[in-house]
Automatic annotation (TrEMBL):
Classification via PROSITE patterns: OMPDECASE
Quaternary structure, from the entry: Homodimer.
This protein's name: Orotidine 5'-phosphate decarboxylase
Gene Ontology molecular function terms on file: orotidine-5'-phosphate decarboxylase activity
Keywords recorded for this protein, A-Z: Decarboxylase, Lyase, Pyrimidine biosynthesis
SUPFAM superfamilies per the UniProt record, alphabetical: Ribulose-phoshate binding barrel
Name of encoding gene: pyrF
Reactions catalysed: orotidine 5'-phosphate + H(+) = UMP + CO2
Pfam (any one): OMPdecase
Family annotation (PANTHER family): OROTIDINE 5'-PHOSPHATE DECARBOXYLASE (PTHR32119:SF2)
Domain Orotidine 5'-phosphate decarboxylase: residue ranges: 5-230
Top-level EC class: lyase
The enzyme's E.C. designation: 4.1.1.23
Binding positions (substrate): 11, 33, 60-69, 123, 185, 194, 214-215
Length: 237
C-alpha cells in the first residue's frame, strides 16, 4: 500500500504566516495540504515555493461544478505539479470522470499525474445533519460507501472520509483505494467544527491511508514537537 506521511493542513491567511510556520520544521520535508483559505490568497506562486522546499502537496480545493468546468479547471491544476487534488463525489460520476480526463490531459508528458480523490461526506457532517439538511435517508456509513463506490467506479484513486469509515470501505472496495482522513484530534475530542473525529493511533488501527492534521499542529505550543510525535505514532504502523 502507498505510504503517506501525516499531511499538515496549512490553513493560514497568507504566505508570510505559512512560511514562518514552515521554517520551524528545519530540514524536514513534509506532506502539506493547501486549502481554499490559503490558495485563494496566494495562488500558484505559493505552490512553487512549497515545491522548491521539497514538500509534497495536496491541493484541497474540492471542485464541484458541471463536468466541463471541472475538466478545464483540472487541466489547469495539473500543470502546477502538485501530488494530490480532489473533488466532491456529490458532483456525480460524469463530473469525476471529467476531472480525471482533465488531470490526465494537463499533466506534463513524462510526469506522474496527481492522485485524484473525492470527498464523500465532510468530517464536519453528522448523520443527523445529513438526514435533515441533505435529505439523505440512509445511514451515514451507507451514504459514504455509496459515494466511495461511485468514486471507485469513476476511476479515481480514493476518497476523503473519516477514519471511522475506513474499514467499511476496505471491506467493500479494498486496496489500493486510498482513504485520506481529516478530523484527527489528539485526544479524540469533538473540538471545533469537526463531528467525526479520531486519534492518530485509532486512525492507523482503522486502516486510514493518510491522516490530515490541521489545528492540532498549527495551534499547538510547539508545532514541530507535536508533528514529530504524531509522525512517530503514525509510522509505528
Ligand atoms: O471532510 C473533510 C475534508 C477536508 N477537511 C480539511 O482538513 C483540514 C482539517 O483541519 P483541522 O484543523 O485538523 O480540523 C481542514 O483544512 C479542512 O478543510 C476536513 O476537515 N474534512
Amino acid at each position: 500500500m502507498k505510504s503517506f506521511k501525516p499531511i499538515i493542513a496549512l490553513d493560514f491567511p497568507n504566505e508570510q504566516e505559512t512560511l514562518s510556520f514552515l521554517n520551524q520544521f528545519r530540514e524536514e520535508t513534509l506532506y502539506v495540504k493547501v486549502g481554499m483559505e490559503l490558495y485563494y490568497q496566494t495562488g500558484p506562486s505559493l505552490i512553487e515555493q512549497l515545491k522548491s522546499r521539497g514538500h509534497q502537496i495536496f491541493l484541497d480545493l474540492k471542485l464541484h461544478d458541471i463536468p466541463n468546468t471541472v475538466y478545464s479547471a483540472m487541466k489547469g491544476l495539473a500543470k502546477l505539479g502538485v501530488d494530490m487534488v480532489n473533488v466532491h463525489a456529490a458532483g456525480g460520476a460524469n463530473m469525476m470522470k471529467a476531472a480525471l480526463s482533465g488531470l490526465e490531459e494537463g499533466t506534463e508528458h513524462g510526469k506522474e499525474r496527481p492522485l485524484l480523490i473525492a470527498v464523500t461526506q465532510l468530517t464536519s457532517t453528522s448523520e443527523e445533519q445529513m438526514k435533515t439538511e441533505q435529505l439523505i435517508n440512509t445511514s451515514l456509513n451507507e451514504s459514504i460507501l455509496h459515494y466511495a463506490r461511485l468514486t471507485f467506479d469513476s476511476g479515481l484513486d480514493g476518497v476523503v472520509c473519516s477514519a471511522l469509515e475506513a474499514k467499511i470501505i476496505d471491506q467493500h472496495i479494498g486496496y489500493p483505494f486510498i482513504k485520506v482522513t481529516p478530523g484527527i484530534r489528539l485526544h479524540g475530542d469533538n473540538l471545533h467544527d469537526q463531528k467525526r473525529v479520531v486519534t492518530p493511533e485509532k486512525a492507523r488501527e482503522l486502516g486510514s491511508s493518510a491522516i490530515v492534521v490541521g489545528r492540532s499542529i498549527t495551534k499547538s505550543d510547539n508545532p514541530y514537537e507535536t508533528y514529530m510525535s504524531i509522525k512517530n505514532t503514525w509510522e509505528a504502523k
